[in-house]
From TrEMBL:
Record-linked InterPro entries: EGF (IPR000742), Furin_repeat (IPR006212), Growth_fac_rcpt_cys_sf (IPR009030), TKL_Ser/Thr_kinase (IPR053215)
Classification lineage: Eukaryota, Sar, Alveolata, Ciliophora, Intramacronucleata
Domain of life of the source: Eukaryota
Organism (species): Tetrahymena thermophila (strain SB210)
PANTHER family xrefs: PALMITOYLTRANSFERASE (PTHR45756), PROTEIN KINASE DOMAIN CONTAINING PROTEIN (PTHR45756:SF1)
Coiled coil: none
Name the UniProt record assigns to this protein: EGF-like domain-containing protein
Ranges for domain EGF-like: 311-341, 382-415, 456-489, 530-563, 604-637, 678-711, 752-785, 826-859, 901-934, 975-1008, 1049-1082, 1124-1157
């Protein structure tokens, strides 16, 4: 037994009691102003009534009843109801009955015989309004009815019907029946049924009842929970219908109070949080817990786990599970992993107010760690700000993720527009290489096999890695070689071999590159692809034994060998460098006899007479050429001379018919003329003629003309010669070809022969000579001189001034021959292999197969950086090169690579250090910090016309290849405008983001030397930050939730309070807590209050009004055993039950039946002071007649007390 604990039955010892009643069939309670002693013993059913607790056991008023039951203020026996000393008669419409039992006072439910009946109050009687027959064959004795079960929208009661052998379910408001679904409640007997609210135990099985409003049905589910044993209750008759699990018998007074829990009566377990003591008779607090307010919460550092107090994590006072702490011990701080540490982990700092590890400055909690805020980086534990427009960085100068609308460059900075050769990637938010480009050394050159053409990477030729244009390769892919045509091949063409070092096709052994091919070197010949050496002194040969061109100073013989001196009958040809036949000789059988028509005279071939094949001297022919005939003058003619005919046998000319040889001719006989070989008769007056129309001697008195005709008078320019009988030439004339031209030294001028220039024999005009006189020589100017002019010499044969030694006539002068130069009038030989020179040491045009270099000498192979020009025969600069100071550097805009090739610089670049890096831009272009050339400098840069470089604009300084504004300036539309005063970095001219030394940034983005109220200076971030226990809101720092500002310090509000007006008065509670009228916060509102989810306050319940910080029921209402305010009787302001009034409303008076009336009944008068109906003077209050009680003690029914009121 345990004394003084709520929820236990108290046993009192009264040895002198008037009546005795065995426990537990006894109840003692106070109803109104009376105390009641109620005995439910099977053989002794009665109740006693007394105004004194002590008198209740000694001199009570005893009332016996066959059927006895009670609940709160009601005592029901037989057909009567006794409430607060007043008896009511139950009037039943369906049958008179004396067996009436109270089932539920709240809903006016009674058991009348085996009818479950709902009644209503009418004056001093109860009348039934509805009833349900339960078909109990034994009537009341073994009836089974549950307590009322409250759901959200309905309250039901369960009763067992013996006729249909099933439980039935009724709405307590009108006793309408509901159907059930789910499991079916089994029936064992009326004593094996335990109920607690909507939980029912039958035997060892547990069932849960719920209400399905949409179906208007009761749903029954069977649970796995069960009692340890099946209990059979003591024989209490119909107690079972009203029994509620875990309720307790109780009393309200007594000096030695001992309570027994009904669970012990049923041999059941202790209530939650309690365990049986060692004697198994008392319930004590479970281990690791302490008794508080009738419960046993776990001690600090322990948590309830399935009813047991398990230890929290180490150094933890309060935890939500064995692994999760919510409040640490003294000197320990709660981590985000809900563990307790004496020192917070890295990136966290201890908060002495909340006793938690919170994030440090410029940090935010993410996934149980405190990374630096966006735009900051951890530097030795401090969050330092990243570069401008950077969200994530790996150091203060290296960004890894940019802000919105910015892109990350390869220099790890953030830009709004990507640099040249880069493009923005919207997915990765980076500046990536454009199409067909790859990142190298922080730039994006075109990929291997591509070339930059106006910013686009165009593909090179097939198998080419590096090219200078789309058609010209400079470096081939792996396993390919560069040809001289700048293409790539897997196998080099004939005469070339692959060079594994340079990856080029180079000339093979004993070969040299010429005109994009590799012929064998001089002195070698290609034999099946190998260059074999030619004969000695041979430069070019067709086989190893046959030379086709000899070395310098050697000549090629007809035997295809090389000699320094040609054999007899041969002469050296200095041009062809071969031994050729001498003049008028022809090669026959490797010798050079004189040509047909020539005769060897002392080694020289002198010409025979014309058309003569064989002669005996230069003037005497002995055999004519084919188709020619030998004349009598030992000359050769194709047709025999006139008067002769050819003799095919002798190959000679003989006289024809009518002819006779005379003086080596065959004239026709006199008077005849030879006509086509026939002697035809001559012309008239002609004695001798040469043709029928040509006379040679005229008859007497006639003169022979030069036309061989005979005339009596001579023609113009002729005069008759009486001696010769011919027409002869006039003065200063001489016959020539049937005419009389002027004599030598004369010219015909209008029929007269005028004299030519001095010393001129033949002239074409008086000023132009064509043949000079004896001892004079004709110049190229058609004049005659006795001594030829400079560079000319006199030719005694032709009588002409001809070119001197090693000279040839050109344009009326005699320059030196090819390979010679005039030195003081003599043609001296030029340098070796030189055709034209300006001095004996300076050549201007080289010989065949040689090229003129810039030193004016001739070479067979041009020096490095030069290439041979086969057209001009000079060494010219190679591709993309220009001559400067006798060398060929790469042209402007090109750079020489390791192979000696000039590769193009970046676009618009004049001088570069590599194909990707420029050092001097072209005209109208400027050099950027990325070493590229642009026509317009990028944003933040300006062009410098002197250096031709993009330099930083005004108020800017170069940093990481860009020109941000100087400290204290901001870029506004490209101009650096000054930031606000004392500001180093700003986002606009009015908004600062970083202040100068000794200044702090306010939330208004201005700079101050002292922070405003509620802010404190942060020396790390150089900002005005919120003070302790404050958070920034709308540019100010109010105290955090749960704190209040007290003289500038944020002091903690009461427990579980978010907003308070002082440290002791709360105005708004935390989540899941409600504000009481005492301005404190509670998780559950105190009695008479209910939580308001809207205002988060504890407000008065229904029909209650706040008074003096409590919520009594409103006037006209009374609090029932459930704590609900039920309406008093009509016109009643204060009542002791819903049926008994103690104070009436205005203008109403309380009568003896505790009812309020506007007019007092007969013999009573209204008392304005007490507001009651009191007896009129000289009258005595009439007592209410009491109903006779039956004295049948055989079948008394006992009703157990149903409701629990905590014992005080």
């Amino acid at each position: 037994m345990t004394s003084g604990q709520t929820g236990y039955l108290q046993t009192l010892q009264y040895p002198q009691a008037a009546k005795s009643c065995p426990t537990p069939q006894i109840q003692i309670q106070k109803i109104g102003e009376f105390y009641y002693y109620i005995c439910f013993d099977q053989s002794n059913k009665y109740f006693g009534q007394s105004q004194s607790f002590q008198d209740l056991f000694t001199t009570p008023t005893i009332i016996f009843g066959d059927y006895l039951s009670n609940e709160n203020t009601h005592i029901v026996y037989d057909s009567n109801i006794y409430m607060n000393g007043t008896f009511y008669v139950i009037e039943i419409s369906f049958s008179p009955s004396t067996n009436i039992v109270l089932v539920n006072m709240e809903y006016n439910l009674y058991l009348i015989e085996d009818y479950l009946t709902k009644v209503q109050t009418a004056d001093q009687s109860f009348q039934d309004i509805s009833s349900v027959k339960l078909n109990n064959p034994s009537h009341i004795d073994n009836i089974l009815i549950s307590d009322a079960i409250n759901f959200q929208n309905i309250t039901i009661i369960i009763a067992y019907d013996y006729l249909i052998t099933a439980f039935r379910y009724f709405n307590v408001q009108n006793l309408t029946e509901l159907q059930s679904t789910g499991e079916t409640l089994p029936f064992i007997d009326y004593k094996t049924f335990l109920q607690h609210e909507n939980i029912i135990f039958i035997g060892t099985s547990q069932y849960t009842l719920t209400y399905i409003s949409s179906l208007n049905k009761v749903n029954i589910t069977k649970s796995s929970n069960a009692l340890q044993n099946s209990f059979t209750l003591p024989y209490f008759h119909i107690i079972y219908y009203a029994f509620s699990y875990s309720f307790t018998y109780q009393v309200f007074q007594g000096s030695t109070q001992k309570l027994v829990n009904i669970q012990q009566l049923l041999n059941h377990t202790c209530p939650p949080q309690f365990v049986p003591d060692n004697s198994n008779t008392n319930c004590v607090c479970r281990p690791n817990s302490t008794s508080q307010n009738q419960s046993c919460p776990c001690n600090p550092g322990y948590i309830d786990v399935n009813g047991d107090c398990q230890q929290c994590p180490s150094n933890c006072n309060v935890c939500t599970s064995q692994a999760i702490c919510s409040q640490c011990s003294q000197s320990y701080y709660l981590t985000v992993q809900q563990t307790c540490v004496s020192g917070c982990p890295q990136t966290f700092i201890p908060d002495s107010t909340s006793k938690r590890c919170i994030c440090g400055a410029n940090r935010k909690l993410q996934n149980q760690s405190c990374p630096c805020n966006t735009g900051y980086i951890d530097v030795n534990g401090d969050c330092q700000q990243c570069l401008s427009n950077c969200d994530v960085c790996t150091s203060q100068a290296v960004c890894s993720q940019c802000s919105q609308s910015y892109y990350l460059t390869v220099q790890q900075t953030c830009v709004s527009g990507c640099p040249q050769t880069f493009i923005p990637d919207s997915t990765s938010k980076r500046c990536i290489c454009g199409a067909n480009r790859t990142l190298q050394n922080q730039s994006c050159p075109c990929n291997t096999g591509y070339i930059d053409v106006n910013g686009d990477c165009q593909q090179c030729l097939s198998n080419c890695d590096v090219c200078t244009s789309q058609a010209v390769c400079s470096q081939c892919s792996q396993s390919y070689y560069l040809t001289v045509q700048q293409t790539c091949v897997s196998g080099c063409p004939q005469t070339f071999i692959p060079d594994s070092t340079s990856k080029r096709c180079i000339c093979g052994a004993n070969r040299t590159l010429q005109n994009q091919s590799c012929p064998c070197n001089t002195g070698y010949i290609d034999v099946n692809g190998d260059c074999q050496q030619c004969l000695s002194n041979c430069d070019i040969c067709t086989s190893q034994a046959i030379c086709s061109q000899c070395s310098q100073s050697y000549y090629l013989t007809v035997q295809q060998t090389c000699v320094s001196r040609c054999p007899q009958t041969f002469i050296p040809d200095s041009t062809q460098k071969i031994c050729i036949c001498g003049a008028n000789r022809t090669l026959q059988n490797q010798s050079c006899p004189c040509n047909t028509g020539y005769i060897d005279v002392n080694g020289d071939c002198q010409q025979c007479p014309s058309n003569c094949d064989v002669c005996t001297s230069q003037a005497v022919c002995s055999q004519c050429s084919q188709s020619y005939y030998l004349t009598v003058q030992q000359t050769c003619v194709s047709g025999c001379p006139q008067t002769f005919i050819p003799d095919s046998t002798s190959k000679r000319c003989i006289c024809g018919a009518n002819r006779t040889l005379q003086n080596q001719s065959c004239p026709c006989n006199t008077g005849y003329i030879d006509v086509n070989g026939d002697c035809q008769q001559c012309l008239s007056n002609c004695d001798v003629c040469t043709s029928q129309a040509v006379c040679s001697q005229c008859t007497q008195s006639y003169y022979l003309t030069v036309q061989q005709t005979c005339v009596s008078g001579c023609p113009q320019t002729f005069i008759p010669d009486s001696t010769s009988k011919r027409c002869i030439c006039g003065a200063n004339r001489t016959l020539q070809n049937q005419s009389c031209p002027c004599n030598t030294g004369y010219i015909d001028v209008n029929g007269d022969c005028q004299q030519c220039l001095s010393n001129c024999d033949v002239c074409t005009s008086q000023a132009v000579c064509s043949q000079c006189s004896q001892s004079y020589y004709l110049t190229v100017q058609q004049t005659c001189v006795s001594g030829c002019p400079q560079t000319f010499i006199p030719d005694s044969t032709s009588k002409i001034c001809i070119c001197g030694t090693n000279r040839t006539l050109k344009n009326q002068s005699c320059p030196c021959n090819t390979g010679y130069i005039d030195v003081n009038g003599d043609c001296q030989q030029c340098p070796s292999n030189c055709d034209v020179c300006t001095s004996q040491a300076v050549c201007s045009q080289c010989s065949q197969s040689y090229y003129l270099n810039v030193q004016q000498t001739c070479v067979s192979r041009c020096p490095q950086t030069f290439i041979p020009d086969s057209t001009q025969k000079i060494c010219i600069c190679g591709a993309n090169r220009t001559l400067q100071n006798q060398s060929c550097p790469c042209n402007t805009g090109y750079i020489e690579d390791a192979h000696g090739d000039c590769l193009q610089c970046p676009s618009n670049c004049d001088v570069c250090t590599s194909q990707a890096i420029c050092s001097l831009c072209s005209q109208s272009y400027y050099l950027t910090v990325q070493q590229t050339c642009v026509s317009s400098c990028p944003q933040t840069f300006i062009p410098d016309s002197t250096s031709k470089i993009c330099i930083c604009g005004a108020n800017r300084t170069l940093q990481n290849q860009s020109c941000p504004c100087n400290t204290g300036y901001i870029d506004v539309n490209g101009d650096c405008q000054q930031c606000p005063s004392n500001c180093d970095v700003c986002t606009s001219q009015a908004v600062c983001s970083q202040c100068s030394q000794s200044y702090y940034l306010t939330v208004q983005q201005t700079c101050v030397s002292g922070c405003p109220q509620t802010f404190i200076p942060d020396s790390t971030s150089k900002r005005c930050i919120c003070g302790a226990n404050r958070t920034l809101q709308n540019q100010s720092c109010p105290c955090n939730t749960g704190y209040i500002d007290v003289n500038g310090d944020c002091q903690q509000c009461p427990s579980n309070c978010d907003v308070c007006t002082s440290q002791a008065i709360c105005s708004q509670c935390s989540q899941s807590y409600y504000l009481t009228v005492q301005q404190t916060c509670v998780s559950g509102c105190p009695q008479t209050f209910i939580p308001d989810s809207t205002s988060k306050r504890c407000i008065c319940g229904t029909n209650r009004t706040l008074k003096n910080q409590s919520c009594p029921c409103n006037t006209g209402y009374i609090e029932d055993v459930h704590g609900d305010c039920q309406q008093c009787p009509s016109n009643c302001d204060v009542c002791t039950s819903q049926a008994i009034c103690s104070q009436c409303s205005q203008s109403y008076y309380l009568n003896q039946q505790q009812i309020c009336v506007s007019g007092c009944p007969q013999t009573f008068i209204p008392d304005s002071t007490s507001k009651k109906c009191v007896c009129d003077l000289n009258r005595t209050q009439q007592k209410i007649k009491k109903t006779e009680f039956a004295n049948n003690f055989n079948n008394i029914t006992i009703l157990a007390h149903k409701k629990v009121v905590p014992f005080v």
